[in-house]
Specification:
The chain is an alpha+beta fold. The chain has 9 helices and 7 strands; from the N terminus they run αβαβαβββββαααααα. A hairpin with a 5-residue loop joins strand 4 and strand 5. Helix 1 packs across helix 3, helix 4 (135-146) crosses helix 5 (155-165) and helix 5 (155-165) packs across helix 9. The chain is globular, with a radius of gyration of 18 Å. The model has no long low-confidence stretch (mean pLDDT 94).
Length: 235
Amino acid sequence: MITTEEKLMYQVMKAIYDSGIPIDFKGSMVLKACLLEAGYNEEIRHTVDIDANWYSDNYPTAEQMTGSLQKALDRSNIDLQVSLYRMYGERCSAGFELSDSSGKVLFSMDIDVNRPVSSTKIYEIEGFHFRGVSPSQMIADKVSAISTDRIFYRIKDVIDLYYLSKAFDFDKSEIMRILDNNNRELGSFDGFLNRQNDLKHAYDKFRLTGDVNKPQFSEVYSDVKNYIKDILPKN
């Protein structure tokens, strides 16, 4: 269920959690853990990076972030080197590469800094603990993304909602509460509801690596539409 690369990424996430750095995780690595905890054992799409949020009273420097991450790995005897290749900005995450002793980049880490606080919980997967966004926060983030025309280059959020629909109930009031706490409003869902051909085209182009099963678009679309029906605009 978990690839060798994913196991190493979970080791890194645990090391960062154990270090006390003010980081919460999000993205596909958390999605996989959350689905496995809920008993969903089907293969889901793989990822080659770690996504996270960094929260602190001040805005950390590049040196502070890189040094903190490197110290966390060293303390856990993880022989990887951390390097910053993109500094964060108002609408841009900090980008880090993690390399082995030969200098080969094994995976990357994208960290948003001081964004609105997310709802989180502690996850455990194969003995690795870390703090990640809650299932409801994940659902809220993905519903927000597909409610606008961003859906056409965020087709993975439609796929992830398909996975989540197999493991979690959709609680409209909880999703709306989270969106309100994050100061976000939903779009019109025009692209999702009225441009199915364009969506199918984007879905067909999206590649799932390895031997992960890719369901028919019609099944994914129908299941997601039914899953989020309570939050869709009423005609």
